[in-house]
Amino acid sequence: MPHFLVLNGPNLNRLGKREPAVYGSKTLTDLETDLFHFAERASIQLTFFQSNHEGDLVDALHEAEDQYDGVVFNPGAFTHYSYALRDAIASISLPVIEVHISNVHKREEFRHHSVLAPVCQGQIVGLGLEGYKLAIRYLVSEEGAVS
Ligand code: DQA
Q: Phi and psi (nearest 5°) for 19?
C-alpha cells in the first residue's frame, strides 16, 4: 500500500480561524480527517505532520526518505524564502508535490515566487483543500509512478 507524508508548514494549524476568506472555514483536523477517509477508500496510507518550525520540517523531510513513497507539502510562507527547505527537498529522492490552498499568484507580490518549486515534482495552486487530494491522486497515478 503506498504511504505518503502530508506535511504542513507554519500557520496551517490556524486553518479555520486564519483569514477564512482566503483559506476557508475548515480546520487542519477537518482537512486531515477528510484526507484520511479519501485515502482509506483508495487503499492509500497517509501520515500527517504540521510544524511552525523550519528545522522540524527539514527533519521531517530527511526522515521521510526511508518511510514514505512521496510527500504532499504545503510549506506556507517558507515557500517564498527557505533555502534550507529547498536543500532538504533536493537531498531526498522522493517525489514532493508543493500545494497551496490559495492562488498565490492573485495575492501579494512576495507570494508569486517559490524557491521550492524547482526541486519539487510539481505544484498545485489555488484549488483550495482539494489540491491535497489532487496531489495524492498524482502520486498514485502512472505518471507519479508509485503503486
Ligand atoms: C499558502 C500560501 C503562502 O503564501 C502562505 O504564506 C501560507 C499558505 C497557501 O496554502 O495558500 O501560509 O501556502
A: 35, 65
Residue 142 has what pLDDT? 83
Grid cell, residue 140, equals 498514485
**Residue 132 annotated to the active site:** no
Whole-structure pTM value: 0.96
**C-alpha 76 – ligand 1 centre gap (Å):** 4
Q: How far is the CA of 104 from the centre of ligand 1 (A)?
A: 7
CB-based contact 97:134 (threshold 8 Å): no
Q: What's the CATH architecture for 3-144?
A: 3-Layer(aba) Sandwich (3.40)
Which residue from 102, 113, 120, 134 has its CB within 8 A of the most atoms of ligand 1, so it is best to mutate? 102
Show me where the domains of the chain are located: 3-144
